[in-house]
Design goal:
This protein is of the alpha/beta class and 437 residues long. It contains 16 helices and 14 strands. The strands form four sheets. The protein has an eight-stranded parallel sheet. A two-stranded parallel sheet has the order 1-2. A two-stranded antiparallel ribbon has the order 3-4. A hairpin with a 2-residue loop joins strand 3 and strand 4. The radius of gyration is 24 Å and the shape is globular. It starts with 11 loop residues before the first strand and ends with a helix. The mean pLDDT is 98. The protein binds D-xylulose (XUL) and cobalt (II) ion (CO).
Length: 437
């Protein structure tokens, strides 16, 4: 097999003073931070779709990406060759995981059985390459949004046959994920939403989506797949409104349909900002519900209102992300998955390396900074002290559920004014964060 990246050797950690653009300055996989190696904290994953299927095309122009290993056809042979290029890339980068959609790795056929046959033929090579390199599948997923049949959605389609097709496709994607030892399986509601409420029976669509997920839970059990299920919130794009719009909406849906025990959330930065939230907010909502599972690490552009899926380089973003992840006990089955693409203008293969190295270094710095902030303790103590009136006396009584309104009335009538508030100290805390950046 010809090398896809002959000019590039394994990316090494060279430390912060290195000027080598093909070296890590901060990500040192074996370095221990807060009791674990950086490798185990961050569990980096490369996505197959953007990194190996992205062409750089946009609504105004054709693809620009140079991918010499790819013959540009939709053949199974080309798909199999591409697997070797992908694993050479991931191995040289030193990422322990990767993720795919079924249709990224293998071409869709004319019938479902032809698609499944293609998928098996490529999965065989994926498995060989996983075994050869030790690279593992973080999660698999089905693309139930690109094919025209899914124009009205998959699980939420108005057409029952389309629902059946989606279920059959997801069944196969779960089987292949299981076969490849995947540690998770993700559901992102690509078109599970609406373009206009004028033609939409929302309640019926939500009931159907829940049915699909319950079927997946049952099938998971049947085949003995132990991986974690994730839902990935996103508010819009491609639809006007997606039912999995943000962490809170996903949690509400999962609770309403008794699915919460079976799912965690896969939170994506650019989806959070499209929902009008920060990544920090989305992680906090998921974490507080015990449902923080994995992250799709990318970023948007402050001046653009769509899902630009850029590689994360902002140290504040990675610091706040890692603060939330550490606070909720770290990533277990999940990982830091680069659901990000190089810009259309960054068309050379080496740009894939620069992009991932930058993202990994940004997260390594975020991890080290977040660990230092936690070790220092002032931030955590400040928050704890801010709520100290709840630790004893009337506060503790309210929290324990033993206080009544009548009793609180008596308490305040006797006390007079409530005890004075303490400052929120936002600026002080922002300065504190900057001490560590
Ligand atoms: C789309 C998106 C997806 C999911 C997997 O915005 O993020 O690629 O991560 O379907
Ligand atoms: Co994503």
């Amino acid at each position: 097999m010809k090398s896809a990246f002959p000019a590039i050797s394994k990316i090494k950690y060279e430390g912060a003073s290195s000027k080598n653009p093909l070296a890590f300055k901060h990500y040192n996989a074996d370095e221990i931070v807060a009791g674990k190696t950086m490798r185990d904290h961050l569990r980096f994953a490369v996505v197959y779709w953007h990194t190996f299927r992205g062409t750089g095309s946009d609504p105004f122009g054709a693809g620009t990406a140079l991918r010499p290993w790819d013959d540009g056809t939709n053949s199974v042979k080309n798909a199999q060759n591409r697997v070797h290029a992908a694993f050479e890339f991931i191995e040289k980068l030193g990422a322990p995981y990767y993720c795919w959609h079924d249709r990224d790795v293998a071409p869709e056929g004319k019938t479902l059985s032809e698609s499944n046959k293609n998928f098996d033929a490529v999965a065989k090579v994926l498995k060989e390459e996983q075994q050869r390199t030790g690279i593992k599948l973080l999660w698999g997923t089905a693309n139930a949004f690109s094919n025209p049949r899914y124009m009205h959605g998959a699980g939420t389609s108005c057409n029952a046959d389309v629902f059946a097709y989606a279920a059959a496709q997801i069944k196969k994607a779960m089987e292949v994920t299981h076969e490849l030892g995947g540690e998770g399986y993700t559901f992102w509601g690509g078109r599970e939403g609406y373009m206009t409420l004028l033609n939409t029976d929302m309640k019926r669509e939500l009931d159907h989506l829940a049915k699909l997920l319950h079927m997946a839970v049952a099938y998971k059990k049947q085949i003995g797949f132990k991986g974690q299920f994730y839902i990935e919130p996103k508010p819009k794009e491609p639809t006007k409104h997606q039912y999995d719009s943000d962490s809170a909406a996903c949690l509400n849906f999962l609770r309403e349909y008794d699915l919460l025990p079976h799912f965690k959330l896969n939170i994506e930065t650019n989806h959070a900002t499209l929902a009008g939230h920060t990544m920090q907010h989305e992680l906090e909502v998921a974490g507080a519900a015990g449902a923080l599972g994995s992250i799709d690490a990318n970023t948007g552009d402050e001046l653009l209102g769509w899902d630009t899926d850029q590689f994360p380089t902002n140290i504040y973003l990675t610091t706040y992300t890692m603060l939330a992840i550490l606070k909720y006990g770290g990533l277990k089955t999940g990982g830091v998955n680069f659901d990000a693409k190089v810009r259309r203008e960054s068309f050379e293969p080496v740009d894939l390396f620069y992009a991932h190295i930058g993202g990994m270094d940004a997260f390594a710095r975020g991890l080290k900074i977040a660990a230092a902030i936690r070790k220092d303790g002032r931030l955590c103590d400040f928050v704890k002290n801010r709520y100290s009136s709840w630790d004893s006396g009337i506060g503790a009584k309210i929290e324990s559920g033993k206080a009544t309104m009548k009793e609180l009335e008596t308490y305040i009538l006797k006390k007079g004014e409530a005890s004075p508030n303490a400052s929120g100290r936002q600026e002080f805390l922002e300065n504190l964060i900057n001490e560590f950046i």
